[in-house]
Amino acid sequence: MTFTHLPDLASRALAGSVVYANDELFAERENLIKPGPSVFSTEDFGHKGKVYDGWETRRRREPGNDHAIIRLGVPGVVRGVVIDTAWFRGNYPPYASVEATSVEGAPSPAELEQATWETIVGRSAIEGDAENAFEVTDPRRWTHVRLSIYPDGGVARFRVYGEPVPDPRLLDGTIDLAALENGGSVIDCSNTFYSSPVQLLLPGRAATMGDGWENARRRDGGNDHVSIRLAARGRVRRVEIDTSYFVGNAAGWATLRGTDADRPGEDTEWFDLIPRTRLQPDTRHFFRPVSAAPVTHVRLDVFPDGGLARLRVHGELTADAHRAAVLDWLALLPEEHAVQVLGEAGVPRQPGELPPAVLAALMGESR
User: Fold this and answer.
1) In this structure, how many other beta carbons lie within 10 angstroms of the beta carbon of residue 216?
2) What is the similarity comment for this entry (predicted)?
């Protein structure tokens, strides 16, 4: 599964939601997108039967199939899905497919049923009590996915791995340039022994120590670090380094450096945004950067090791970067969605550059 290093766009941790399921008699649909693995107890029975930590429909006695619709926490390009049937052995669906759609706003379940759905994983055989992985090659951006099972049964977790592509119309002004929901992503990390550095970029405050990034204890005299590609090229105005819930294992010191490069490599020049500074355990630290030069990536070094809950890099996109993000987003939209967006702006979808006034409106410059 080469795609599982990417964020799970459907995860509840990213504010994903299972907005509809045609049946959930045995086990509720919301379990599909829980961040952690499914758990099981042989003694746990309820009024309707065995209690499962997943989504389970009743046995079908008529033609058809069951399905659940998931709103992605962050829209994006899907690179692969995992249909996890953990603990479902005699009651898993023998086949499944995945469809996707791209729509404006926050439609209701009834409106989503009327949307145009495209198949991104064709009907395929799946196994019980297994992580059934499928690569997705469709290059378009989606806002919702639909898990269809044939004819019925139980699925423990549904993971939708991909590259976040947020709506760039909402990226004007000061934003968290590193946030996953704004398009930030981890590109390199020295150590992921206890937990993933992707959690540094999740929305909201960490709930526990396990909700952040924690590396192993270093014994070699070096230090740990994580590099992040920002949502787009921008100028940093404020930084937050949060060690909440890390008490005896917080990072002792940290630096934050930036670079303006397409793809940082070994010869990349980095400059200080936050010089080496002492950190306190279980504390939110706020800093003004020492440089306002535009950056595309930041590198956080912790000394010598230790955990962090969140990293926030607040700033503004440069005008050129924002303009490029709008054009890239339009190119990734399915045809129907792109026609709707441009139709509301008063122009047809066609090759070539957008009229300057339309592009300015999409960037929020006309308000």
Assistant:
1) 12
2) Belongs to the allantoicase family.
| CB-based contacts of 38, cutoff 8 Å, min separation 6 | 31, 52, 53, 54, 84, 86, 87, 156, 157
Asked if the 12-164 domain carries CATH number 3.30.43.10, the reply is no
12-164 shares its CATH topology with 169-317: yes
Q: Work out the average pLDDT over 88-104.
A: 96
Give the Å distances, CA to CA, from 82 to 96, 115, 131, 353.
11, 24, 6, 38
Nearest by Cα to 252 from 262, 263, 239, 243: 243
**Topology of the domain comprising 169-317:** Jelly Rolls (2.60.120)
Q: Domain ranges for the chain, please list them.
A: 12-164, 169-317
On whether the CB atoms of residues 79 and 1 are closer than 8 A, the answer is no
The model's confidence at residue 265, banded by pLDDT at 50, 70 and 90, is: confident
Q: What is the pLDDT of residue 50?
A: 54
Evaluate if pTM is beyond 0.85: yes
User: Averaged over 69-88, what is the pLDDT?
Assistant: 97
Residue pointed to by tokens 């269809």: 148
Rounding to the nearest 10 degrees, give the CA dihedral for residues 135, 102, 8, 133.
-20
- pLDDT top residue among 274 and 345: 274
Q: Is 320 helix (H, G, I), strand (E, B) or coil?
A: helix
